[in-house]
Amino acid sequence: MTVLRFVAMSICVAIGLSIVACSKSDSGTAAKATAVKEVAEHDHEGWWCNEHGVPEEVCAQCDAKLEADFKAKGDWCEKHNRPESQCFICHPEKEAEFAALYEAKYGKKPPKPEAGGDEHEKESAPKAS
Questions:
Q1: Minimal CB count within 10 Å: which of 83, 95, 100, 107?
Q2: Is the residue at 95 inside a domain?
C-alpha cells in the first residue's frame, strides 16, 4: 500500500510540475511570437529585406534591437512606426535612395516593398468624394 501511495504521489507531483512549467509566462513571449511570424514571412538570410525595401542589416522593422538603436538616435517616425530615414510614406525619396543601393549591387530594380506602409497611408489619406 505504501508503494502505491508513493507512485500516485510521484505522478501527481510530475503532473503538477509539468503544468507549472508549461504555464510560466515569459517576458519576451510577444516578441518571440512576432519574430516567429516574421521568420515565416521571409527568412532574413539575404542581403535585402523584400518586405520593407531596405538592406536586412538596417531593417528596424524586422530587428527590435535596431529599432531601439534608431529610437535612441532620434531617427524614428512615430506615426508609421519605423525609422524616419526608412519611412517611405513621409519621405518617398528615401525609397529611391535604398533602391539605388540594390541596383548598384544587383544591376536591376529591387522588388517593391511588400509592407511599405500603405496600410497607414490608407488610414490617414482623405477619402475621395
A1: 107
A2: yes
